[in-house]
Amino acid sequence: MGVEGSGERRSGNCSYGSPHFLVEKGDFENYGEGRVKIGILAVQGDYEAHAAMLERLDAASVLVRVPGDVEGCAGLILPGGESTTQMQFLREEGLQERIREFAAAGGAIFGTCAGAILLAQEVKNPRQDSLGLLDATVLRNGYGRQIWSAVVSGHCVWKSEPLEMVFIRGPVFERIGPGVEVLAEYDGKPVLVRQGKILAASFHPELTADTSVHERFLQLAGFPAAAETAAAQRQ
Amino acid sequence: MTTKGANGSEKNVTNDWRVKVGLAEMLKGGVIMDVTDAKQAVIAEKAGACAVMALERVPSDIRKEGGVARMASIKIIREIMGAVSIPVMAKVRIGHFAEAEILQALEVDFIDESEVLTPADEENHIWKHDFRIPFVCGARNLGEALRRIAEGAAMIRTKGEAGSGNVVEAVRHMRTIVSQMRKLTTLREDELMKEAKELGAPLDLIRQVAKTGKLPVPNFSAGGIATPADAALVRRLGAEAVFVGSGIFKSSDPEVRAKAVVKANTHFEDPKAILEAHEELGEAMRGLDIRQIDEKDLLQTRGW
């Protein structure tokens, strides 16, 4: 999938395939009985890609637009998008407080790219408000503008082979606190970190075919099926 | 701030299709606003825009003033890029790959090959696969959308009728694209070649849409959206995000209107929220009846 190379002409041999997550749209709002439900912040950004990923893992999800939507969720995903746009909404809709309460009550939260920015204690370039749930400092657009965005691979603690990572105007974890565990690295920098039940990625696992990062998150959220799948894979 | 890319120290490495469509994915659910200077860009960002389109003149002024409309001045684009942290888009003339190369060298985040500017080529569009910066293109129907995607567009927007302040054309184009896609999903495999022929679109993309019922790239709406209700309308008809051009900064109350459009766009299925968004609004931009516009002055007929 995808166009190979960057500079050369590719007349006649181009591909314009759809990213996998656009291929099937699951009915992710119909969560069944006994299934653990994951909320996905759906203010703006790639929330559908996360929903499609959860659907593939047979986890139920619900789109979160107002504080009441968080009710009954075992975990919450803060997707990629624009962190300034998203943060403004969290503030105006009263979701900022609701998400902090959710974290304080032991809820698992997973932020990717803009979501990781929202989770960080300190945001630079430029400075902005955040939820402050992760002991880390992030540099927005730390890898540069869109022309620097890329698909790369790096080491991840639970995989013997490298993990594929899609960076899109991604942030850089400039500093992480002593209680923060590094789960994956790229180019000598942490790119996937965990502190308690808070998981944050500076890349977009939801834009790849690899489900393992989301499986880890489902485990944090206490989702038994995901734990079984992961255990089966380890054997 | 690092100058090193996510791809390491080299700049010319694979930057594949997923990265281009990926940025379009990140903009979903948002509002992209036309701005003509850094001050407007800051207003847009503060109001919650997920990106801005840097322009020298908004479409309604281009329509009024006439002349050849070209890529915006580099100085203006640079100032806007320096003023905000959200992605910055800029327009090039249809087929003008040299303008696009300049914008790529400038490192704008998205390029709009736009019918709002005066076309530079009346037969060919830019071969967008040659670029590392993603492109968005306008479309009035499914055939046009799929031709642009085949050329490498990572995002499609309806053309509507830019600078008219009249949503009727954006509605027509969104309904056309969505119903043409719906039709494809009902056909047999052996009926798709005829559709490819009639729509003037590549068969592999036709087959893909027949299977999924949606475009292989995000499908946004533009052209004539002037009020929060307009934004909600096109979202309800299938748009995954909206572009607002002249509608904001040609109104009597840009700050309030920008925020209101963002609010309605996010809560597009919640009439109470859209009511709240309308509550504080002043006068919208003065719109044009499309039937009063001369055929030769229509912007939507540009593009092939």
Tell me about this structure.
The complex is a heterodimer of chains A (235) and B (304). Chain A is of the alpha/beta class and 235 residues long. Chain A contains 7 helices and 12 strands. A 9-stranded mixed β-sheet of chain A has the order 2-1-3-4-12-11-10-7-8, with helices on both faces. A 3-stranded mixed β-sheet of chain A has the order 5-6-9. Chain A is globular. Chain A starts with 19 loop residues before the first helix and ends with a helix. An 8-stranded parallel β-sheet of chain B has the order 7-6-5-4-3-2-1-8. Chain B is an alpha/beta fold and 304 residues long. The model of chain B is unreliable at 1-14 (pLDDT under 50). The longest helix of chain B is centred in the middle third of the chain and has 18 residues, at 168-185. The interface between A and B is large, with 64 and 59 residues.
The percent of residues in helical segments of chain A reads 25-40%
User: What amount of the residues of chain A lies in strands?
Assistant: 25-35%
Number of strands of chain B: 8
How many strand elements of chain A? 12
Name some characteristics of this structure.
heterodimer, A: 235 residues, alpha/beta, 9-stranded mixed sheet, 3-stranded mixed sheet, 26% helix, B: 304 residues, 8-stranded parallel sheet, 13 helices, 8 strands, disordered N terminus
SSE arrangement:
The complex is a heterodimer of chains A (235) and B (304).
Chain A: H1 20-23, E1 37-41, H2 47-56, E2 60-64, E3 75-78, H3 83-92, H4 95-104, E4 108-112, H5 114-119, E5 120-124, E6 134-139, E7 150-156, E8 163-167, E9 172-176, E10 181-186, E11 189-195, E12 198-201, H6 212-220, H7 224-234
Parallel strand pairs in A: 1-2, 1-3, 3-4, 4-12, 5-6
Antiparallel strand pairs in A: 6-9, 7-8, 7-10, 10-11, 11-12
Helix pairs in contact in A: 6-7
Chain B: H1 17-27, E1 31-35, H2 38-47, E2 51-54, H3 59-65, H4 74-83, E3 88-93, H5 97-106, E4 110-114, E5 135-139, H6 142-151, E6 155-158, H7 168-185, H8 192-199, H9 203-212, E7 219-220, H10 228-236, E8 242-244, H11 246-249, H12 254-266, H13 271-279
Parallel strand pairs in B: 1-2, 1-8, 2-3, 3-4, 4-5, 5-6, 6-7
Helix pairs in contact in B: 2-4, 2-12, 7-9, 8-9, 10-12, 12-13
